[in-house]
Design goal:
Elements (H helix, E strand, L loop, with lengths): L14 E3 L2 E6 L5 E3 H14 L3 E4 L5 E6 L5 H9 L7 H4 L3 E4 L14 H12 L12 E5 L13 E5 L4 E6 L9 E8 H22 L9 H8 L1 H12 L26 E4 L6 E5 L5 E3 H14 L3 E4 L5 E6 L4 H10 L13 E3 L2 H4 L7 H15 L8 E4 L13 E5 L6 E5 L2 E2 L15 H15 L7 H6 L3 H8 L3
Parallel strand pairs: 6-7, 7-8, 16-17, 17-18
Antiparallel strand pairs: 1-2, 2-5, 3-14, 4-5, 4-13, 8-9, 9-10, 11-12, 12-15, 14-15, 18-19, 19-20
Helix pairs in contact: 1-2, 1-8, 4-5, 5-6, 5-7, 6-7, 11-12
The structure holds iron/sulfur cluster (SF4).
The site of iron/sulfur cluster (SF4) has 12 residues, from loops.
């Protein structure tokens, strides 16, 4: 069955994309076990696809399907918890956790029990199937790998070991949620989430009847105003009167993409255990790697694999004595685990191969660039690169070191370097064709390596202090 609103599909309702059917598996909290890895292997075998892709919501997606998922495979996915047995609520189980929840030495509160309770609440309430399949809730335990800047509708951020700060997605689409001036004790979190979800449902019933698209939480809040929405939530919550929502806008996040702090080896809060953050280039996880990482997790870890909203993987609960062996096995699978590799912070949307709005083949162009940089340079700091097939910027909403924007009607990119539009070629208005992208970006990396003030100067700082004429020289490769 094709998704009614073919923008955010689930396993029961694939969407039609340019390259075939697109379907997503919700992975609440982003945590997989060995049995689920085996079910994913089975799914890949049944579809004859080479890889499954980790999304920027720490879910999984399959592209270019030629037909619906086979019933037997679907049953296997349901039996191991990768799909909900209730079709109505499968798509709204978007629950994002700090990917190091429970193992982060700096964490204030382990949010895993809250996430489990929220998942159970959602799956027990088919009436919430009316909510948008983009509805998402994030739980951030206040540790070193945070998700509060990820664009969830609701985020709870631990601010001490007893309380959370409430954030709501009331800003622009795709932006980080904003603080609304409400602190909650741990016991209040589930009731307030339930009150918000039920108020959201009522808003859809009231305002969404004639809408051609499913209203998002921010649309409903807009209809009622933030204060009015707070009053509705208060009524639903039935607790003491204290939910006066205020928009406490905060400074936008710093230049630079997401988090790479989780990549490589890190000690866990459990002093005799370590986790390994592994890069999946563009989130692609192929069949041998699904099998291989499942086996490594089973043999050397606790059987768990964690997906991150940066489209990577964490293998937790490893012993010190096994680290070398595990890293060698991961390398044999063709995977790397260092933040300084060019594919570590490489993001690309579906682009022209999968999306009708894509001007350029972002996925292939990103792989070509990553291969070029890996073959010609040794990066000594992480470098974030983002390819977007059009201005919608689906793959990444915060700014990267280098962004390449596909230009409508042309198979070309507009280069944005450290937030500034870069000139390409002799003509200041010229755009960069895909085959010149590697050499142009390579020139910028070269200039950075040889002209920076010292090894600590970041790429952004280096570019920002260049004059327009110097920038032109750096990118002028025609
Ligand atoms: S950014 Fe544009 S081209 Fe890329 S997936 Fe989104 S809508 Fe499509």
């Amino acid at each position: 069955m094709i998704a009614e609103h073919a923008i955010c599909p689930d396993i029961y309702h694939p969407a039609v994309a340019r390259d075939g059917l697109l379907t997503r598996l919700r992975i609440p909290g982003g945590v997989l076990n060995v049995a689920q890895c085996m079910a994913i292997e089975q799914l890949l075998a049944a579809t004859s696809l080479d890889y499954i892709q980790v999304t920027n919501r720490a879910n999984l997606q399959l592209r270019a399907l030629t037909e619906d998922i086979d019933k037997e495979v679907l049953t296997a996915l349901t039996n191991c918890g990768l799909a909900s047995s209730d079709r109505a609520v499968d798509g709204i189980r978007n629950i994002m956790l700090s990917p190091t929840a429970g193992i982060d030495p700096q964490e204030l509160i382990d949010v895993r029990p809250l996430a489990t309770a929220w998942h159970d609440y959602l799956t027990d309430r088919p009436e919430l199937g009316i909510l948008s399949t983009k509805f998402s809730v994030g739980f951030d335990g206040g540790g070193s790998v945070g998700i509060v800047d990820r664009p969830n509708d609701i985020t709870l951020l631990a601010v001490n070991n007893r309380e959370f700060e409430l954030y709501l997605g009331i800003g622009a689409s795709g932006s980080a949620p904003l603080q609304v001036g409400i602190r909650l004790g741990v016991d209040e979190c589930l009731p307030i989430l339930a009150a918000i979800a039920q108020t959201y449902r009522q808003g859809i019933e009231l305002f969404g009847r004639d809408s051609r698209r499913k209203l998002r939480l921010r649309d409903v809040i807009y209809h009622w105003s933030l204060t009015g929405f707070g009053e509705m939530v208060q009524r639903e919550f039935k607790g003491s009167s204290r939910f006066i929502f205020k928009n406490l806008d905060r400074e936008s996040s710093e230049l630079g993409v997401g988090s790479w702090e989780h990549l490589g080896v890190h000690q866990q809060r459990q002093s005799d255990r370590y986790y390994l953050g592994i890069v999946l280039p563009l989130g692609r996880w192929n069949k041998p790697q699904v099998k291989g990482l499942g086996e490594i997790a089973d043999r050397y870890g606790s059987g768990a694999i964690r997906l991150t909203p940066w489209q990577n993987i964490i293998l937790p609960d490893l012993k010190l004595a096994d680290l070398e062996r595990v890293q060698s096995l991961v390398t044999k699978l063709g995977l790397i685990h260092t933040a300084n590799h060019p594919s570590s912070l490489l993001r690309a949307c579906a682009g022209s191969s999968g999306c009708q709005f894509g001007a350029t083949d972002t996925q292939q162009d990103a792989i070509d660039l990553s291969n070029y940089i890996a073959a010609n340079f040794t990066l000594d700091r992480p470098l974030s690169i983002h390819f977007s097939g059009c201005d919608k910027s689906c793959a990444q909403h915060d700014r990267a070191d280098i962004t390449l924007w596909g230009v409508e009607g042309q198979n070309c990119y507009r280069l944005e370097i450290a937030g500034a539009t870069a000139e390409f070629g002799e003509d200041p208005a010229a755009l960069c064709p895909p085959d010149r992208v590697p050499i142009s970006i390579g020139k910028a990396i070269d200039a950075y390596h040889y002209q920076r003030l010292n090894p600590q100067e970041s790429f952004q700082a280096f570019i920002t202090r260049q004059s327009p004429a110097q920038l032109h020289q750096i990118f002028n490769v025609v």
